[in-house]
């Protein structure tokens, strides 16, 4: 959940002991948070019957959603106290923390295919489902919605170039049928360093030298009280630990559960993990669209997708040298490459005009449904 | 031939007996219609010497052109009498009736490759040949032509997303080398239902909720007299039957004729069938461009291509469960996928600026010529 | 170096004997020209020790750069004396003379792979490195730079369609796995004639019927004195001969040198040759960007790339029927196809908005670096 507005307030900072009370008031405002009860449930069940994979899968999915929401709320709270630039930096860096933690758990278990599917799936889900959903939800209430075309076009360009960057090694290897191996691994390492450098320069650009281009319109919910810094940090650290625990259970159960439920691993990684990890951001994007603040929706959807391509994916490659059985490459299976390219082109096209109506959302969601259907029906051997 | 303007007139409706006279006056206005004489000729010849495949091929091509022109004229006439919304709905649905009937004949003969080539060819021909031709013909008369950028961009987006939709199964299967079979057939069925639903929502959008975005500028030929409803219906049904008869002859002769003439089946399906089936629409698009009404030309070209991708292709898949030897999938050969993608991207690029000059037409036609040349030279085994 | 402005002056034309003096004054203005000393050095070394491939490689690279600069200066000088239309025609035709001469030397040596790599590399280098570098260099000095969006969009469309044209045979053969051979050769011949015709019509369009769309803003260096016609022609012919001699040495040494330096042939053709051949144009494009004349930079980068696709490549195919061991086709290796497509799409995207900032340059250069890294690491067997 990215939110670049200023939240410094004149309310005196409450003590750290108020964390529980803040969490409770948060719960009252966001009914979704009642799902938090699944967190102890899934941890308990994993101790009691670690073989109940299907149930563990559903419970961990249900538990991650409220944790992700708390996580972005806490990130925002800390960011708001850090001042504009540092806060925005933190917001941008931790914006996809849930996806990162889930992927780290999968990396730790050596499930590289699941990691890659969730990266590709997050890009596709953010550009098609989140953007399309925002257009549809907003368009059902407002006849025509305008958004800042210059900013959207810039973010789409960034996303496009980021996706290209992540795709080149896969494309080159695929079309030339180069066997994976040393080449692929060296290239992935070099690319990861390059991408993180480009991401860093992008932060410099959007937060420092040209920040006026990225100005957000204001608040979604003007009346919410900011958390104190200490509460924010405690929640941030604590919830991250819980996300890590639940993610480990999720990763451990997902394959068996998927098999039992008749879902292909590709479908689980692409669709289920991406929807679960991005649930909190989607809520924000959709309610912004209903409030006729499509600038914010488009910014969240495209910005988050770009961040995954430029930051999360290369960080995972670098981390894989220290975590898990063997280093991970940036090479994706060709179907994922095609889907990422198509999703990015669709997003570029949809955000190009600076105007949206409900049917634009339908089209984006239809492409997403086509991807989902294809992945669902894909024979598991592929 | 799509024409969204209001044709309700104050002229008293003539009796159905006037159909012949109306057809004759139509013939005088459109010299192309003299080709109608080939209709009895080809039907007669097929009875007399059913083995004269090359001659039957040429005669059936010559016979379909005037029938297509009459068909769109009759569709318009009926549409004009039905009132704005219902009329536009009919116009949009029957806009590619000729292509549909030819494809049904091919489907009935079990020639799935010909059906798919003609679908892909119609999309490519509409976007490159019809749009490029309109730009060239219009640009030779007018220095710079403007057209409604917002509407063109919307239609191009629609076409782009529609093409993507139709391409995904082919792309995924190709890049991952999944064997065709149950997967492909299930996916094609699901996608067809999805595409038809999206098409229906598109009608709702363009004819009901956001019709003001698609407003057409007016008439091409202001002085033509509308046909009475009965005449329109009689001509519509009668001509459709004739198109069906001639199409059956065409489909029966095309393969042998192509072989004898040294043309590859891919070339015939892609280029010949598409040009024949779209002849009537092209005439309208080109004369609209000369009359400096490029809005209409762009609308016909992109709209017709989108309709084939979103409506004709999925309908053919569904119908193939009842007609012909076995169900047809939505999987295209990879070369056709590449051409459709390129054509759609070219159309998006060309219609993006809202301005056209003759050289834009030359470029589009050059790409079309490149496709034609490639298909013409392609070894038949491919 | 393309420069469409009027240079007819009122200075009386000096005698041809002044050529040396003009060259000297040129040298003082452009310090790069001191590299001209490498020209005799490399020619001498080749006589003395023809086996010193690595040294010959470096010396010939260093010698081509100043020759290319002189060549474009001479082309401009002659063009300025020939009047607007004829001069622009000459400028446009000889704009990539260095690339053409290097490629001819490679063609003569039968090194088709090197020729194709340098064609593909020139397109990629012009669109990513030259355009990106101009955006970066200009953006470090100016906060936001505007350029003529209509003209840039037109040139990007031209480039896009040109690239498509050059790619179709490779795409079709690749995806359908048609064996290269007669088909490929016939198609390449037909396409080359078609592309040259399209290029000729493009000249007619941009220099005659719609020249007002391509109007350049003015001079880069207002105070330079034009060379007399005779000096221009003498330098043009003389320098071309020297480029040919040095190119032959370069082509003869490049393969062994690359092997010794641990560079893949793909990297040399794509990156090294393209950077060397385009050095002069890059200097112009970058200094124009610093002078806040991004129109000129974008025009040089995209125009040069389009010229290579539409004119240089097909001319080389035609010439290959008379020069070298066997005719060359237009079929590229799939990795090159992917890179050209991506580069063209990135250029379209970057030039679409009509505005640039430094980060746009960083992104384009990052994609270029990714390509370079991939090619550098690619196993030579591929």
TrEMBL record, chains A, B, C:
Q: How does it sit in the membrane?
A: Multi-pass membrane protein
Fetch the InterPro entries from UniProt. CaH_exchang, CAX-like, NaCa_Exmemb, NCX_ion-bd_dom_sf
**Chain segments annotated as transmembrane:** 31-49, 55-74, 86-107, 119-140, 152-172, 187-207, 227-246, 266-286, 298-324, 330-350, 357-378
Q: Which UniProt keywords apply?
A: Antiport, Calcium, Calcium transport, Ion transport, Membrane, Transmembrane, Transmembrane helix, Transport
In terms of domain of life, where is this protein from? Bacteria
Task: Say yes or no: keyword Ion transport present.
Answer: yes
**What family does the entry list?**
Belongs to the Ca(2+):cation antiporter (CaCA) (TC 2.A.19) family.
- Spell out the protein name for this chain: Ca(2+)/H(+) antiporter
Native organism: Sinorhizobium garamanticum
Q: Which gene encodes it?
A: cax
């Amino acid at each position: 959940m990215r939110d670049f507005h200023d939240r410094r307030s004149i309310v005196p900072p409450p003590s750290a002991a108020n964390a529980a009370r803040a969490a409770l008031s948060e719960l009252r405002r966001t009914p979704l948070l009642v799902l938090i009860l699944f967190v102890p449930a899934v941890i308990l069940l994993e101790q009691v019957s670690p073989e109940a994979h299907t149930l563990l899968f559903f419970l961990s999915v249900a538990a991650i959603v409220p944790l992700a929401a708390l996580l972005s709320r806490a990130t925002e709270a800390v960011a708001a106290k850090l001042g504009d630039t540092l806060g925005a930096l933190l917001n941008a860096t931790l914006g996809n923390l849930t996806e990162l933690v889930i992927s780290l758990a999968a990396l730790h278990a050596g499930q590289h295919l699941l990691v890659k599917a969730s990266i590709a799936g997050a890009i596709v889900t953010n550009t098609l489902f989140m953007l399309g959903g925002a257009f549809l939800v907003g368009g059902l209430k407002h006849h025509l919605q305008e958004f800042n075309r210059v900013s959207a076009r810039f973010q789409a360009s960034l996303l496009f170039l980021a996706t290209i960057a992540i795709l080149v090694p896969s494309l080159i290897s695929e079309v030339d049928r180069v066997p994976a191996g040393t080449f692929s691994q060296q290239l992935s390492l070099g690319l990861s360093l390059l991408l993180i450098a480009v991401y860093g320069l992008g932060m410099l650009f959007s937060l420092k030298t040209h920040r006026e281009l990225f100005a957000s319109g204001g608040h979604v919910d003007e009346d919410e009280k900011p958390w104190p810094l200490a509460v924010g940090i405690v929640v941030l650290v604590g919830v991250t630990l819980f996300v890590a625990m639940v993610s480990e259970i999720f990763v451990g159960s997902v394959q068996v559960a998927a098999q039992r439920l008749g879902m292909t691993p590709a479908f689980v990684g692409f669709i289920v993990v991406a929807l679960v990890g991005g649930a909190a951001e989607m809520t924000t994007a959709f309610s912004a669209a209903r409030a006729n603040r499509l600038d914010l929706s488009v910014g969240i959807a495209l910005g988050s997708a770009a961040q995954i391509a430029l930051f999360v994916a290369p960080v995972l490659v670098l981390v894989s040298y220290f975590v898990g059985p063997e280093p991970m490459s940036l090479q994706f299976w060709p179907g994922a490459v095609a889907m990422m390219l198509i999703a990015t082109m669709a997003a570029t096209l949809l955000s190009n005009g600076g105007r949206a109506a409900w049917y634009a959302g339908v089209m984006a969601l239809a492409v997403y449904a086509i991807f989902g259907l294809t992945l669902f029906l894909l024979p598991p051997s592929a």
